[in-house]
Design a protein that fits this description.
The chain has 197 residues and is an alpha/beta fold. The protein contains 7 helices and 10 strands.
Length: 197
Amino acid sequence: MVMISAVVLAAGRAERMGEQKLFLPLNDKPVLQWVLEGALASNLHEVTCVVRDLKTMRQRITLAHDRLHWLVNYGADRGQSSSVIAGLWAIDPRSEGALFLSGDQPLVHKDLIDSLIEHFENSSAWIVAPCFRGEARNPILFRRDLFPELLRLTGDRGGLLLIEKHKDRTAFVEWKEEIPFVDLNVREDYERLKELA
């Protein structure tokens, strides 16, 4: 089986919500814990969670697993790209691919992740991304060939930028339900997630 590492992006300020959205409870578990548990239930080799403040994070997230690693991004104020880069440097150097998960997308589950990994293993695509109603969504899986380009990202730009550039090397996995892609940006999203969880 091909070795795939996950990088969970959880170092944002979450300013729009007025509080740290990753710690909001969903069925008695913080939002971020849902993401981590979904990743750990899948066929991923390891999960590296990139955070801004490890002490606070470990007080709120009690999850411990031998495949889960924590990484502090001291340059988090430079935007999401800084977490992408920090996470890439931290993963197992033998990994053939890196899957980037958003810390505020709690209903991403193992079935979706394993489907992306399966497509990755059975194709030569550089990028494998889920697609809902004709639109690429997160999480996105990148082959090692693209690591140098990911390491050159700047500001708040993430992997969707590379899908535009490498459309001919991208495989899309059609997904029928929207639930895994619901993320948490405003209070209305939180109310919706509580209904779906």
